[in-house]
Amino acid sequence: MAANVRDVLREAEEHLDRHNTKMPRHDALLLLSAVMGQRVETLLAHPELHVPTHDLSTYWEWLQKRARNYPLQYLTGRQEFFGRSFVVSPSVLIPRPETETVVQACLDFLTTLERPATVLDIGTGSGCIALTLLCEVSNLTACAVDTSREALQVAMQNSHNLNCSDRLELLQGSTVDPLLIGTSRRFDLAVSNPPYVARADSVEPEVEHEPGQAVFAGQDGLQVYSEIFSKTACVLASTGRLILEAGFGQAEKIARLGKENGWHEMERRPDLAGIDRCLVLHHIGTAGPTQ
């Protein structure tokens, strides 16, 4: 492989294109930027730059993995979300733009509160939801729960990078279980982007490399929603809200499941593709009048 940016990128793009990578130029450029520690703009402005031999070796290894559908974000170790850069690893789900719909719904609710608020992030993964809320709302504190110790380590790293670690508590466990023993804490908001893919469903090749416990949830994809609905009311304040992300075509089923467990749907929001992506609920008898 040639040794300047221009020729390296050309050969890399051709290699990824032969393996049917969706955006070969984009991926080749981002990978080279990450390997060399140079901004994309610098590489585009200076195609004559020399690519060191050790960087070239690493770059080729990454290209081979990317050609086999290994996620770009796991190779670079980064993913943008709500205008911020988050560390990601194979231990966490890669943050998606669709989840920003959930974050915006959370922010809209939090702005209605006239006091310091508390939020519970169920299945935090990289911490992208809880940490984005902490960055956006200065008087907010958050508790983030995940079953994976490795995921919590990623969330902790992101909290330090975003200067939010002093307002974030990390707990290991399933859904709200760590909060059910020896505590009477109540949160103003509980939010979750739970796993919602049915075991029998096919997924994109890249998704197959993401942690299964963050993607799949039982035979119908609703397993974790059932657990959230059955346990979360006891950790919410009387005016608290539960905000959930939904998969394609799932919103109605989730709303119905919530109703069976005493939850009332207050709002449903579509993402930019028009898919019902977010549900806002409260537990009947613990909040104000239904809408």
What does this structure look like?
The protein is α/β, with parallel strands linked by helices. It has two domains: about 5-70, Orthogonal Bundle (Helicase, Ruva Protein, domain 3), CATH 1.10.8; about 80-285, Rossmann fold, CATH 3.40.50.150. The protein is about 35% helix and about 20% strand. The strands form two sheets. A seven-stranded mixed sheet has the order 5-4-3-6-7-9-8, with helices on both faces. The protein has a two-stranded antiparallel ribbon with strand order 1-2. Helix 8 links the parallel strand 4 (about 140-145) and strand 5 (about 170). Helix 1 packs parallel to helix 4 (about 55-65). The protein starts with a helix and ends in an 8-residue tail after the last strand. Mean pLDDT is about 95; it is low at about 285-290.
The CATH class assignment of the largest domain is: Alpha Beta
The CATH architecture of the largest domain would be 3-Layer(aba) Sandwich
3D shape: elongated
First-residue to last-residue Cα separation: 63 Å
Number of domains: 2
Low-confidence stretches: 286-291
Number of strands: 9
Helix content: 25-40%
The structural class is alpha/beta
Please give the order of strands in the largest beta sheet: 5-4-3-6-7-9-8
How many strands, which pairing sense, and closed or not: the largest β-sheet? Answer: 7 strands, mixed
What portion of residues belong to β-strands? Answer: 15-25%
Oligomer: single chain
- CATH fold naming of the largest domain: Rossmann fold
Mean pLDDT: 94
CATH superfamily of the largest domain: Vaccinia Virus protein VP39
